[in-house]
Amino acid sequence: FYAMRDLRALGLLEYFDAIGVSSRWKITKPDPEIFLRAADSLGLKPQNVIVVGNDPVEDVKGAKLAGMRSVLLIPPIEGMWSTSRAVFGECDDEIECEPDYVIEDLSEILEIIQNVGSQDI
Asked: Is 114 left (phi over 0), alpha (psi -120 to 50) or beta?
């Protein structure tokens, strides 16, 4: 509900070809099925998807479980980022929640896509 409402309010809804919303599919992150369904709805292989999210457990771990690359969007606030189990308490291993990329602004996604474009993204 909130995702669709926020995308609509921001005027961003029209820019997406597919949207996976856990409340519609009755799947919660980090279950990889929600990521796999979203990729499938676009006709994409998991290894050709980059997941952008703001939660190391729900978004990054879920993407990794689905075989996708991950980008963590964090606010530019000193000392706010950590994948420590002590901080999040839900990762069996810190590596599970370690994103492939960390950004502070969504515009940085374009550079990531350009840099890995030759890698079948």
From this structure: alpha
Residue at 62: amino acid letter = G
Q: How far apart are CA 29 and CA 40, in angstroms?
A: 17
Q: What is the CA radius of gyration of the chain?
A: 14
Torsion of CA 48, 3, 71, 121, to 10 degrees: 20
pTM above 0.85, yes or no: no
Whole-number Å distance between alpha carbons of 121 and 114: 9
Cα 98 to Cα 16: distance, rounded to the nearest angstrom: 26
* H helices present in the chain, as ranges: 2-9, 22-25, 32-41, 62-65, 85-88, 108-116
The predicted-structure confidence for 33-74, as pLDDT tens digits, reads as follows 999 999 999 999 999 999 988 888 889 999 999 999 999 888
Q: Which residue type does 51 have?
A: V
**DSSP code, position 35:** H
